[in-house]
Amino acid sequence: MRSILLLMNLCFSILYATNHSLYQLTVTTTKLHSNNGVVQFALYNKEGTIPDKTQTHYFKKIRVKITDKKATATFKDLPKGRYALSVYHDENNNGKIDKGLLLPTEGVGLSNFTSIDLFHLPDFKSASFKLDKDKTVPIHLHYF
Hints:
Layout: H1 2-19, E1 22-29, E2 38-44, E3 60-65, E4 71-79, E5 81-90, E6 108-110, H2 124-127, E7 129-131, E8 135-138
């Protein structure tokens, strides 16, 4: 009887895993201005969450140390879906994007964008990508 229950449990586990796959998303940055501070990687999964000027509408967030002017973050156990990324180099580690008169004084970047027009920030739809397998996404940070 115990063997039958164990076999049934294994079958249900395999069935569940097949229908509810979870994925890993690795995000990389290179050519940071310095090794100072940290890099914040914010992951978004809903329409209307980007642009996120207050940095509060994210789904998940990871802050990592910088090594050799590079940073990498890995988001694990993500369900299939559409996601967007916002990344910034928090050089003074104060938890916010510092700005001059109009422009950020720290590096910023978004998924799907190799350049950023701060006067016309993209929305979730234009910054999002499909996640249906493990994926690595490079983000280029812009320093103004």
